[in-house]
Amino acid sequence: MRDPKIRGLIIQIVLIIAILAFASWLINNTVRNLADANIAAGFGFLSSRAGFDIGQLPIEYSSNSSYGRALLVGFTNTVIVAAAGIMLATIVGFIIGISRLSHNYLVRGLSTIYVEVFRNVPPLLVILFWYFGVLSVLPGPREALELPFSSFLSNRGLQTPAAIFDPVAWLTLIAFVGGIAGSIWLARANKQRLLQTGELRPTLWPAIGMIVGLPLVVFVLSGFPVSFQVPEATRFNLVGGWRVEPEFLALFLALSFYTASFVAEIVRAGILSVSKGQTEAASALGLPRGKSLRLVIVPQAFRVIIPPLTSQYLNLTKNTSLGLAVGYPELVAIGNTVLNQTGQSVEVVAIWMVVYLGLSVSVAGFMNWFNARMALVER
Amino acid sequence: MEEHVSAYVAREQKKPLPPPPTEAGALAVLRKNLFATPLDSIVTILLGLFSVWAAWRIFDWSVLSAVFTGSSREACLAGDGAPVGACWAFVRAKFGLFTYGLYPVDERWRVDLTMLLLVAFTLPFAIPRVPFKGLNLFLLVGAFPLIALVLLTGGQFRIGGGWVAFMFILAAFVSTMLAAGNLNAPPGWLRVATWLAAIAVLVLIVSNILPSGQFRLLVFSFTTLSLVAFLLAVASIAVSAFASVSSSGKHASVLMHVLLPPLYVAALLVLLAGDLGLQPVPTSRWGGLLVTLVVALTGIAASLPLGILLALGRRSHLPAIRLLSVVFIEFWRGVPLITVLFMSAFMIPLLLPSGVSFNQLLRALLGVALFSAAYMAEVVRGGLQAVPKGQYEGAQALGLGYWQMMRLVVMPQAIKLVIPGIVNTFIGLFKDTSLVYIIGLADLLGAVRRGFSDPNWITPTTPASGLVFAGFVFWLFCFGMSRYSIFMERRLETGHKN
């Protein structure tokens, strides 16, 4: 007993036995309770008919589809709103974060107010505010607010023109992808050239030409293979075009603006962490302001920004589960419906956990990879 | 000649010229900070126009065209076609619901008294200059939860013997730890006390699996085995007390420290089970700000000790304990709180033996506490890692055991380092309490949400008014906490500048 190693071993064995005993007790209870309630354990229910409708369908689904398919629709919706939210949150967050360091009183003051307001209210409240406070009280489809580009905003969501592509439009897409690949190749070749000979060749303008110009030329040559379907007001509703549901809008806007306030603080801290000597050294080397930002300050700030930014992205992804409160059909909302219909709570909760853990691990993995690329290479 | 020259020697320094008018004064400051470049001027003018417009719109909505009095939706409807702003009449009418939920009107003084006590205990504790911090801490952490529990629920619980034994076993462990804090305590006695408590845990677990004879003792119904566990815990406490007395010079204060946990548990049980003449109020009638504060404060109080234990586990040298802590922490951190709450709502009834039911509020509390403990653990781990290795080695060189080292040397330094992180976790927890509304509890947000679906109050502006009100309350709490954390950070920082 006096030997710390043996003592440690005994403590661990006792702990493991205790946890196993507790777990088996829980499982035993669960099995008995399920048997009492006549619920079959297992994932067999996933292939039976769902029988409910879903408001927003990124992939094919009808009420005759299976529960598994319904959960897949939910998962796709989660990914869509998470990806869109991350993009908008990053853009808004960077703008606000840089504004907080501005010399302009007004810019700095307004962005400070933004951060302090949004950081200190619950995200669920922001979602409810957008949904019940703003979007639900908009005029109905008949008196919808008209926005530019013949879009309409009403209490049924945002209705925008939909682009309908002819089959020939594939050529444009191919040209676009080719342009990106060409630009990457050009940038690599130019960098190699710079390292070998010291000659600086232009990269930006040829790249823009390849990515934007080439598809544009192909687009014009193939005879404008696109037409727009404009939403039209009928007696009771807006018909045609592409509709963004109010549930999506509420969740998307709320989560983006909420997370943006955190991103802003991270960006501000990151920029402040780059010491002033770096800026001075860059200008002493004769780098103009734009280049010193791009080559000296931003890469160093990024090193500080990325780890906390990752956890904010993860938070946003997890917060998409709040869509349940406004009826956005994401994974938790659909899982909740499935759970109420089938009573398979253990299985549904297990699916949630596995999916969210998987999402967390994959976002974290990607950001770790990105972080490793940006990290300081020490000799 | 020389005299002539000396006439030109300045005897004092010349006064500097004033800066040119373009560089000083209010105008120059404005010019520099608002109109430095043409682009800056454009931005300033555009943003200035926007802020004036926005401020006017907000003022108009919340004051000028707002409705302050009225008893039904008619007051907040645009009768004459003019747009109606915020419907504060709705907030006024539902204020009781937002604060107390469905708590019986005659009993609301109990909630008021509890909140008053909370403020009375918290404020002096938060102001560094007020003396008697030790007593204050005891009142806030020790006495207040007890008083609040009894006041809010009304007491008269039926408590099983298993719970009594469980509480006393907890008290036994805390007593042992407190006794170990005294460096003169004989280690042999402490070991005996620890073993007695550990055996009590085992007996308690066995008593839940094996049936044994039931009988009543006072108001508590014991089984034979749970009574054995209870007696073992009491024995452990007695041994700890004896160990602390046998060697120390200042008997009274040490003994009081060691006996405090069991006395506290005994008081808790007596108050909870006894009849104090208060009408019991079931938790299903609680609501509004009351539930928000209960969930947030319980989460805060539970997550800190749990988080510290998990952080220690994650840095343990024992691989099984480390692995379990890592899995536990990463699991809770990887899933959204909603799924945790759903789990606690749907799965806890399945996991427990049939017939054992669990209060809905308590289930949500359990979920919130476990969830925030995982986040707290990561914050505390950051603090533990920042304590230099020399401190650990120094403590070991002095012959301190693991718990003594942590309690006397490492933890005080680690916690001090991560106060901002802890407060941030508290703020996050406070905001997250709003999610309990999704599993059917009526917290502040839930009460507002239910309030504006009341057919008596359906108007276009009631949802926004109610939500703005709730948002303001949440904002006050969170902003206050963050400011206080900055203040504490500055106060504690002085010792660390080098």
Describe this structure in words.
The complex is a heterodimer of chains A (379) and B (498). With 379 residues, chain A is of the alpha+beta class. Chain A is 66% helix and 7% strand. Chain A folds into three domains: 4-38; 47-161 and 230-374, MetI-like (MetI-like fold, Orthogonal Bundle); 172-220. Chain A has a four-stranded antiparallel sheet. Chain A has a two-stranded antiparallel ribbon with strand order 4-5. In chain A, strands 6-7 form a two-stranded antiparallel sheet. In chain A, a hairpin with a 4-residue loop joins strand 6 and strand 7 (238-239). The two termini of chain A are 48 Å apart. The mean pLDDT of chain A is 82. Among the domains of chain B are: 37-87, no CATH class; 288-351 and 370-498, MetI-like (MetI-like fold, Orthogonal Bundle), CATH 1.10.3720. In chain B, helix 13 (319-334) crosses helix 15. Chain B has helices at residues 2-6, 25-34, 38-64, 88-93, 95-100, 108-126, 133-153, 161-180, 187-209, 224-247, 251-273, 288-314, 319-334, 337-351, 360-386, 389-397, 402-417, 419-432, 444-451, 462-493, and strands spanning 214-217, 220-223. The mean pLDDT of chain B is 81. With 498 residues, chain B is mainly α. Chain B is 70% helix and 2% strand. Classes of the chains: A alpha+beta (379), B mainly alpha (498). Chains A and B meet through helix 1, helix 3, helix 4, helix 10 and helix 11 of A and helix 2, helix 3, helix 9, helix 13 and helix 14 of B.
Q: What is the CATH topology assignment of the largest domain in chain A?
A: MetI-like fold
Whole-number mean pLDDT of chain A: 82
Count of discrete alpha- or pi-helical segments spanning 4 or more residues of chain B: 20
Cα-to-Cα separation, first versus last residue of chain B: 58 Å
CATH superfamily of the domain at 288-351 and 370-498 in chain B: MetI-like
Compressed to H and E, one letter per element, the order of chain A equals HHHHEEEEHHEEEEHHHHH
Supply Rg of chain A: 27 Å
Major β-sheet profile of chain B:
2 strands, antiparallel
Question: Structural class of the helices, strands and pairings of chain B?
Answer: mainly alpha
First-to-last CA distance of chain A:
48 Å
What does the oligomeric state look like here? heterodimer
What is the beta-strand fraction of chain A?
A: 5-15%
Query: What is the CATH level 1 assignment of the largest domain in chain A?
Result: Mainly Alpha
